[in-house]
Design goal:
alpha/beta, seven-stranded mixed β-sheet, Quinone Oxidoreductase, Chain A, domain 1, Rossmann fold, homodimer
Chain lengths: ~325, ~325
């Protein structure tokens, strides 16, 4: 699945097109992988904005980037054998060639939904943003935006596991019900409500100690006005600004409210914590085993469904981790 | 000097008026002080915006707040004797009553300009913002806004003492010359220049590791676009937004650039470091003794000049610490 045209405004399925190519031959030291599933994250939309992103400039005609699970089809590298399950930056394609350093072995005995969700990039992002930047203490208030999303629904549950009071902000009443009734959030607020500001305030009576920001935009601005003294904001993503030709201005309250309330805003990328993934997966795995993490997945079938899955994700249609099964 | 009217737009001397009252009597445990000098800081303008500030709501008819040096005139408190030099939240008045906890002894053998500047609140603000939040490493680039101001001119010199490369942003060519020619800054950029963005970029070829922000507004926005990966922004003040009826929107680049470059923005108030003032003053005193800190003061004579001093400060007329001698 290649990029047919870079989106100038809202992404559409026609920004992509299927292309057929031969199965490549692995060179010396290389590994040929066959993709079994890919995950899609909202941050990939930022990648399609070109130079504004950490992901590098996208190219029309190039295979759409992405990561997922794959089986080793042929290996010329020590440590990887035919049939091994691996995590790989497969891109949106059936077959991909990799150097061993790009691959990470995955436990075939674990539910693939867990490998792609809480034990994958989304889960690691939630974990490090929450524990390294948010650092909630028991009974502190943690707020997360895009709370029913791939990262958000894990952040909230992890924060509960750490003993915090958790408030989610999501884009529909249905998602809010899911968060409270099924995922254990203490409260949830629909950002599209006419009374959002009042409802948000009512849901954070003790103000906000940790705000995990996946959206930027108006929700970030609202959170800034509710931060407690010494509060921390983990800046993870800016989904409110990805899928548009006209990004909004910055949030009012920066930097004045940061000064008055001694608030810290810190941006992060999960890749900076790569040397600690194993440690995080051990802890996350324990939470799964204990039933504290209830991961959700929205699945699509077939590579041809990936563009629609991406559009749905950006429109807020999907819940939890968005996965395309190949 | 009392508040005659709260400013609705730009501050004017007529927002204040002189009032005459009797010298108060110290009650049991109280200390009567006679003010010898007060300092004025831009942050006090935020205090006049009422509820938006950490300084509490101002009152028309009340004495304008502020801190300075004073002599103990009469004392009913152990530890303070007539004639002692003290730091005190005197307000803009000749005589003030204090509880002992509000007072701090000051060394009468030290130049009062040093006590009010680098060893006073401005110097402590510069010190803690720079060393606790900025944490520059040798040869890293430190940028400071309002660089010729009370805090800024000390931040830059302290950063030089710590081995950093220092760039100041100030409001006139004359101030920029002062910073480079007399205070040892490596470069300085006039924020009012038509080519500010280009000049700012040229002055930060290795991007910015530490940005000490006294202004918010357009300079903050420019700095955000020049931050290095892992950069730190110490949010100290928002002088660009204090003296106006129509505050600007937030800076573009928040939070997107914070994420991409893993930048931390942290607001702080010097009062949170009160238990470490002695440690800081020892280090700052050493820098003064070694000739690394060259503090500047703009002095005014008489309480009646305080309103004009404040207006001048906000208009960028003053350099270094603004002091009113009583």
């Amino acid at each position: 699945m290649v990029i047919a045209a870079l989106p100038e405004d809202r992404l559409e399925p026609t920004n992509f097109e299927l292309a057929v190519a031969g199965i490549p031959e692995p060179g010396p030291g290389q590994v040929l992988c066959r993709t079994t599933a890919i995950t899609i994250g909202a941050g990939q939309r930022a990648g399609l904005q070109g130079s504004a992103s950490y992901a590098g400039a996208p190219k029309v005609g190039g295979v759409m980037g992405g990561s997922g699970l794959a089986r080793v089809e042929r290996s010329n590298a020590a440590g990887f054998d035919e049939g091994d399950l691996v995590r790989a930056p497969t891109g949106w394609q059936d077959y991909s060639l990799h150097e061993p350093a790009q691959l990470e072995g995955a436990d075939a005995g674990v539910d693939p939904a867990h490998l792609l969700g809480p034990l994958g990039v989304n889960g690691l992002t939630a974990y490090f943003g929450l524990t390294e930047i948010g650092r909630p203490e028991p009974d502190q208030t943690v707020v997360v935006s895009a709370a029913a999303g791939s990262v958000g629904h894990l952040v909230g549950q992890m924060a509960k596991a750490l003993g915090a009071r958790v408030v989610g902000v999501a884009g529909s009443d249905e998602k809010c019900r899911l968060l409270v009734d099924e995922l254990g959030f203490d409260a949830a607020v629909n950002r599209r409500s006419d009374d959002f500001r009042d409802e948000f305030k009512a849901a954070t009576p003790d103000r906000i100690d940790v705000y995990f920001d996946n959206t930027g935009g108006p929700v970030l601005e609202s959170a800034l006005f509710r931060m407690a003294v010494g509060g921390r904001i983990a800046c993870c993503g800016v989904v409110s600004q990805y899928d548009t030709a006209s990004p909004a201005g910055g949030p009012r309250g920066v930097p004045g409210l940061l000064v008055n309330n001694r608030v810290t805003m810190q941006g992060f990328l999960v890749f900076d914590y790569a040397d600690r993934y194993d440690e995080a997966r051990t802890e996350i795995g324990r939470w799964i085993d204990e039933g504290r993490l209830n991961p959700r997945t929205t699945s699509y079938d077939g590579l041809e469904s990936a563009p629609q899955a991406f559009v749905d994700l950006l429109a807020g249609v999907t819940v939890g981790t968005t996965v395309v099964q190949l």
